[in-house]
Predict the structure.
Amino acid sequence: MTTRTDALPTQEMTINMGPQHPSTHGVLRVILTTDGEVVTRAVPDVGYLHRALEKIGERVTYAQYMPFTDRLDYLAAMNCNCAWAWTVEKLAKIEVPERAEYLRVIVCELNRISSHLIAFGSYTADMGAFTPFLYAIREREQVNDLFEMLCGNRLTYNYARVGGVSGDAPPGFLEKTREFLDYFEPKLDEYNNLISYNKIFVHRLANVAVIPAEEAVAYGLTGPNLRGSGVPFDLRKDEPYSVYPKFDFKVCVGTGERGTLGDCFDRYMVRINEMRESVKIVRQAVARIPDGPVRAKVPRLFKPPVGETYFRSECPRGETGIYLISDGSVNPFRLKIRTGSFVTMNIFEKVTRGLMIADVVAVIGSFDIILPEIDR
Amino acid sequence: MGLKAYLNDIVEAVVTTAKGMRITARYGVNPKEEVTLQYPEERWEIPQGYRGFLHNDIKTCTACNMCVKVCPVDCISLESVRGADKKMVLCSYDINIGRCMYCGLCVEVCPVNSLKHTSGYEMASADRGEMILHFIAEDAAEIKARVARQVAEAAAKAAEAAKAAEASKAAEVPKPADLSAEAAKAGGDDPKAAKAEAPKAAPEKKE
Amino acid sequence: METQAVFDMLKGKFGDAVVELQGAGFSPAFVVVAPAAVKEVSRFLKEDPALSFDSLMCLSGVDYKEKFAVAYHLHSLKHRHAIGLKVMLPRENPSLPTVDDVWPAANFQEREAYDLFGIAFEGSKDLRRILLPEDWEGHPLRKDYKYPDFYHGIKV
Amino acid sequence: MEALALSLVNAIPPLAGVPLWTVTLLLMVVVAAVILVFALTFEGVGSLVLRKVAGDIQARIGPNRVGPNGMLQFLADGVKLVLKEDIIPANADRLLFKLAPYFVFVGSFAAFVVVPFGVGLIAADLNIGIYYVMAVTSLVVVGVLLAGWASNNKWALLGGMRAASQIVSYEIPVGMALIPAVLIAGSLSLQDIVRSQGGLLGIFGWNLFHNPFTFFSFFLYFTAAQAETNQTPFDLPEAESELVSGYNVEYSGIRFGLFFLAEFGDMFIVAALATACFLGGWNVPFFNAGTLPWIWGNLLSLGVFLAKAFAMVLIMMWVRWTLPRLRVDQLMRMAWKFLVPLTFVNLLGVSLWLLVFRGKGIPGMIASLFG
């Protein structure tokens, strides 16, 4: 991309991008080495938000750890809550009432919508269009209202429990959810018209940071980032858990419609399309939710059997896998949380080579990373 | 780039821009689309089960310590002593709202439903100390002293009763015998408790 | 492919380097291999067409009190099967060969294990602390970790 | 200006004893002050309107706390900017750092001199009006580059470099897109250009509708001018999400205020030039404001001019809140591969048109058909 002549010697410049930078989505720090505007090397430096969540896990009980999973990925706290609950249930082989599983799926998919909305909104803001961001926030507020109605909080929900959920849906919740879906679905087309297919936007994203399928797999990309490379792998479909097999939905993959398969635009478009699929899932779940209890009997002093388990679930930012080792006591012996964003950052240095500074922003946005999940 | 692609590029740019501008114009013109809530004047309706500040109804609280144990961030602290009627008496019940993460686990475990989330969410203070909610206004040491006094009184009463029972035992009245035996047992227990609590309360009183 | 079959296959190929199969209570089951053989085993697991474990889901360090371990969770997109691979390490100077040339995904997670457990991955292309500051003392996820009182004069 | 001073001296006898140059100088200062007040007011109100428009488009309310319905927000902002601490980074080049905002502000403010506000309302009807505007607004480049360099901040430097390359590149299509108006009027003076669009054709006398090429010229000018004034989608020099804030990242207080004011000033200049060159300027459709008494004619034409200019400003804001930002190479590509060739083709088209049809536009021809 650059041509350098000996007659005009130029020098590389090191720029510190972050941890306070508007578009590093938190406290990511990237050390850029640039040749003019062209990035020759971008080394991510993570860990500014490290709160030792894994160490805390060894100190608290299984039930007490639930609120900490909220802080794992605060834009998709429901998904993290449920991931933790599912992991412990898998370890202790607890049967969960079906209604609870349905409620979990509803909240997970609603949270996926709200999380992807933020991804969409902040991405457009990164690209310089501020208006779609506020539209996205507006829609997300409605999801938050729903969650507030359900569990009393707007951001850190702490809704799932080992063996079920904290409470049944209050009267009117399901109707309100349906109303929201009816309101929300047409908005997606509006977003597409407003920005997704905007010429400038497409130009900014298409053919930028192309990740071929094999590379995506080798680097452990998961979730929308993997599917953006055209790999149709979705844990909800391919390694079904909870009641996901009962729903009819499509796995969205990148198609390379505006550029090369696996570019930023594909990753972006996968998210937009996934919101539509999530709407579909929530619609089905709301229609079919059975009656019954929402919480299995779990002893207050819960001690799972000795063992090791690894459970992964599809979170908005990729696979959240929890490796849980129990020594039979009330506290987990060791727990390791493998988060989508953390593993995704691994490929960052590779894909940003040779891009421009503005593209680095585009790459960060297209990965939809979130720092609390990276730094834990 | 052929001429056709070139012109196509231009047309596409104009068309997509126009499409986007139509949408923004619609929002710009339509005042009904405004969703802002003018916060201090307008407030949203707080749903039932909202997890706001914690409130403990100390009248019903049994000082069972469950909330303290379950709190993942140790924001609740309570002190209690055993009272004259063998129930725990709260001396202090503090919640550090600055530390609380509103997870609701404590409310869930409360066996008598005395600990509850209120709908309060507004708090600003210049001092971290103000973030600690004291649910018992009285000084902990005073309560302890008072309880210790009560316990001692009860013990004395029990001892008296025991003495009376002994006296009545000497008189060989069969019926209240087991009653007094119980009383004697109780009396035997209580002074122990009182002894255990009294020295603890005493130095604090000096402070 | 079943874990037992994978284990048998590895046992046949690598002999003593494959120590045991941790089955009951483990989900997925773990094949425990000797530290020195981890790279060859990994390469075999990835490249054998019948196995083709092409993605490394998770790499975690574990402190089992008497020894350290590194656990690899592998998954095959092609065959849709999963397996665990575990390497037991001594408490003194734990080190093992890196697998980041087999699965590039390993790099960040190895750095994390190095950072939090002090497990050295020989031959890693970039083994620096990742989550903690470069000058942090100790490895916090070890069970015998002592919390420091001060960091650069700031009370922790 | 001297003529005006002369007439003033003739009208007011006590002034006769004063040397003419003093009167002229005084007059200049007064006019400059009037324009400055206008510019500052516009810039203040512009910032308020910008935020209100943003609020409306983004489904929110916008500023509404200071004064009735937030009308006085701009005053509060101004007071805030004046009162804020003026920070100069320790390693900045102090002299250049202090100098840069003035360059930028003067560059944008000086262009107001030739804006034809009304029939007789023009500070200086230079015979090279358009040329002057192009030249004097180039001063902004110097200021921006200085700001970027002197801040001793890499983001600012990148912003300054981007601004320089961008403004220099887009100067060409801006100039080329304005030339059709010059060709039609046969003069570089903005007053002449505006007068050439008057007459009985009403809005069809505007250069915009003169012929298809001028119609396109207008849009090309508008696009290129947006880029020249660093408006979204061409706001790369201050691209907030990339360069944090670009060349003015280290500025605070009133120095930042000057950059801020210059930005709005540029916005108005672009709108004013577009109005003057393509939208008939102060011409009231189907009416000759020049026939009215001096004061009423000027007021009417001023109102018409401002209405048109503000409409243009609103459109700029509308675009700003809709579009994402280009990348720096795409920006250059757009300038050199799209705008420059297109403006040249347009210029050629207009010239040929004028040659073939002897300077008559389509509406003019249709009008002559009907007598």
Summary: Chain D has a mean pLDDT of 82. Residues 1-83 of chain D form one domain. Residues 26 and 97 of chain D are 32 Å apart (CA to CA). Chain D touches chain B at residues 53, 55-61, 64, 318-319, 321-323, 338, 342 (CB under 8 Å).
